[in-house]
Specification:
alpha/beta, binds thymidine-5'-diphosphate, 12 strands, 354 residues, binds nicotinamide-adenine-dinucleotide, globular, Rossmann fold
Amino acid sequence: MKRHILITGGAGFIGSHVVRRFVRKYPDYMIVNLDKLTYAGNLVNLRDVEKAANYKFVRGDIGDRELLCTLFHEHSIDGVIHLAAESHVDRSIRDPLLFARTNVLGTLTLLQAAREAWEGASAGARRFHHVSTDEVYGALKDGEAAFSETTRYDPHSPYAASKAGSDHFVRAYHDTYGLPVVLTHCSNNYGPYQFPEKLIPLCIRNICAGELLPIYGKGDHVRDWLHVEDHAEAIDEVFHRGRDGESYNIGGINEWKNIDVIKLLIRIVDEELGNAPGSSEKLITHITDRAGHDPRYAINAQKLREELGWFPKHSFESGLRETVRWYLTHEQWMTDVTSGAYERYYEEMYSGRG
Ligand code: NAD
Ligand code: TYD
């Protein structure tokens, strides 16, 4: 079936992998990528698909009602995969209002546009997929079981609270107006094209540059890590085959203490660079802990496995090594992202184009 899918936040880290996957795998689909190109949006991430006949980029804000109305009608949008968000916890601590505006109000505006555009259409042919996070569930203690889809919401950071708020609106639109929705809650992603403010690309960059590796507190906080392509595959499965109104957890069954992730990264990067083993360990620097830092996240993704047969394909160590190699062979990407030069790419490639 030909579909017209609006992917929001497609120039970001995860969004770019989802866009690439859909553009390549579904040549019959039209993929419209709506992205505001904040500091986290980078069109260079999509250079390899930007000229595909089934792809269109639109620069714009998910909070712009008029633009959304035009896009839904001009492109006969029948599916939405919503990734656009402010995504970094530390930034949310500094500027919580921005997170409420983008993640809560932006999502609400998008839901309303979908509702208006799809009024009267049969639900079977429409779908609004909201991409959320495991952070809405709060924190687990050592020895406590993993988050399931029925775990009570208990967000702590402004980022998690804003994502929880958007989740509630998505469910409200399903229950009140019958909007066909699915939600996914994923654990921490890693892989190519991740902005180097997040732990893994930040540490790869700093090990290469011989700069300090800042670890919050003792480094004993635990995260579940999943390769971004496994996440994109899970989104594909849930978007196409997930049950209406349901939530699905996505995770790597791959819990690591932060300090151990950093030590593994040091080993891999030192090996790849031909440094003496462990020579970068001296860069590890314990700094003041993040406020409200959740001690542990872990995901029970059994529902996704049982209903849709999805499971993660990348092992952590080989996925991490492949990721390190990607960053080492994309030095210019890292330089442009850290200097801000990538922001010029849009002006050069897209301004003046329809
Ligand atoms: P990212 O910060 O790399 O990308 C976000 C994208 O959204 C950027 O391209 C940005 O330009 C765009 N954007 C921001 N505000 C916008 C607006 N108002 N209108 C249009 N576009 C806007 O984020 P990411 O890590 O790729 O995360 C994508 C989604 O996945 C987010 O919703 C996030 O909450 C969720 N998620 C992320 C992770 C993770 O580990 N990174 C894990 C689980 C869930
Ligand atoms: P991050 O990549 O920011 O993702 P999230 O906060 O969404 O889990 O951080 C992953 C873990 O690494 C988290 O426990 C915080 C920690 N961390 C550090 O110790 N130092 C850092 O410089 C960063 C960015 C994160």
